[in-house]
Structure formats: C-alpha cells, structure tokens
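fyi for ur records
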Amino acid sequence: MKAKLVLENGTVFIGESFGATGEITGEVVFNTSMTGYQEILTDPSYAGQIVTMTYPLIGNYGVNQDDIESSKPQVAGFVVKEYSEYPSNFRSTQSLGAYLKENNIIAIQGIDTRMLTKMIRTVGAMRGILSTLDDDDESLLQKVKQSRQMIGLDLARVVTTKEPYLWNAIDTTPYALAPLTNPGNQQWKIAVYDYGVKFNILRRLAAYGCELTVFPAQYPAEEILTKKFNGVFLSNGPGDPAAVRYGVKNIRKLLGKKPIFGICLGHQLLALALGGRTYKLKFGHRGANHPVKNLLTNTIEITSQNHGFAVDPDTLDPHNVEITHINLNDHTNEGLRHKKYPAFSVQYHPEASPGPHDSDYLFYEFISLL
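which gave:
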C-alpha cells in the first residue's frame, strides 16, 4: 500500500506502508541507533513524534515481550529505509510490521531516510504527516500546518499512569545487568513521578533493592511527604518541560526534604525547579552513542539519549547548583546536582546501558543518598 510523508517545508516522500492504515501528524525526528527499535517504539518520551531510523534495515530481529519499555508503542509514526518482513531471532515472537498493525501505528518504508535526516539536521525538527489515505500533497501540507507545535506542549499528562501502582519486578532475563552492591541490602521505599517512565528504569531501581510506588505526574507533593518514602525519582517523558508547571511546583516542595534523582525530562524539571530555564534543540539528541564527560571524575561515558529540549546551564545559580556532565558533541548540559540538598539529575538514560555499563553507577549514587 502506498504511503506518504509530508513535511511542513513542503517536502514530500512517497513510500510503502508496512504498519497500520490511517493518518497521523507529529514532530519528525531521527534516531541514530543501529538496534533497539522496539525500545524506541515503546519509549513514552517519543509520544507525539514520527521517528525516523537512520540505520537502513529495520525489523530483522522481530519483536519480543522482554524489550518493551511501556505497555504499548508510543510513537506517532515510524519511518525506515527498508523493512525486513521475515525476522530471524530466537527471541522473536512476531514481525515488526504485524506488531505495528496490531497497535495501530502507521509506518512507511522505501523513502530516502538519509536525505530526510540531513534535511532535519539542516532545517531542524519539523512537523509532518504520515498518511495512507490522502494522496493530495497540498491537502496533506495544510493538515501539517494546522497541527500542534511541540513547544508549549505538555505530553506528560497524556502518557502518565492514571492511578498509583507498586513495582518491584527486576530484569530476570539471562541478559540482565547485575547491580552494584546495594548498601546494607535494605528495601528502600521510593516514590516515582511518572512523566512517561520506562520499564527498565523501574527494573534497575528494583534491582538495587527499591520498592517503588509509581504516581501520576500531577500527584500532589504534599501527599508524597505524608508517606514514609526514602526518596523521590523523577522520570523521563515527552513534550516541552516548561509546560509541565505542576511538576516544577511539586519538585520545589520536595527539595531538601527527600533525596531526588531525575532522568531526562526529570532532569529538566529539576533544573526548572531550581530556577533554571530550558530551550528547544535544533534537532535533538536521539541515539545510543552520545559521548558525555563526567566533570566530577574526568571520565567519558557512552550514553543513550532521547530529548529535544535542553537545560541552559547559564540560568542556574552557581552558588547552589553544580554542573556535573556535558555533551562532548555540542557541549550542552547533561547533568547537575544541588550543592546543599541531596538532589541530582542527568539528561541521558543510564538504564539503557549503551556503554554498556558506563552510567549504571548513577543508580548506586541515588541509593547511597538514601
């Protein structure tokens, strides 16, 4: 079946559908990872985005139930150069195409993803539309121009859990990473703010001896403080961090009262709570090989990243906040910690293990604060 991808600058890509039929708008971005498409598809941080894979062959190892990061695919749409229809892997339970159709995700193959990626790098992330229904280029372009912008968009309230729930499951597959020593082997009680949390973050915290209660993004901080939690975790998530005002207000009420650890959107929200500002990157950081320098240890970590916004370190008070990590590709901020309160965060994803173990120490540092 024919499919089209139309960008807001008028560029039209014609390809073949290998997912669901329909039509969807979203911000068109690219990910440079060679593997991990299933984790990417199910990462809630990709809500509202049409994701392009730069690696040319996608789907060759199929889909399995161990590698999902949420209950369903979260991307708005999926774009690849070539889809592998017949997967070959002992863990595979179905093909990628069948999985996308089952979950109503529109996908296109056969377009020039190299051209698309270079265009995004030059122009910046753009709105786009994926359609298997409308063949009129002008009609599709008008729909794109009427679609919502990512700036100012609060998507955390869309992907967050509706009700609190308990989590204590760890990764039991043969490929699981063993945790560093859990200090005292104590069962720590952690409150998790779900702005779009990935399952593997919860698994890593559980592996360090944490009993997790996952709360909706808008859950009042006052209620958290009435319960006997040892610490608070701020999760990753989609959208514009500046739009998650309720999250910033809650974090300010928790600062200095509970140890806090944030990842990705959680990092940005902590920075906002500390008086900083965030801004939109031209085309974002999405991939599994981003080099980050730890300024505290003078070491380099290979990291997995997925974010379109960043923290402006110049807006943070140097008397209270210390910059701990920077991105070596563009020198953007990748981590911070408070000088007085037990609170720190990173922009990247230590649970994704691209190094593969470079950043797992961050979970240990959080446990040590408890």
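The longest strand covers residues 277-294. thats all i got for now
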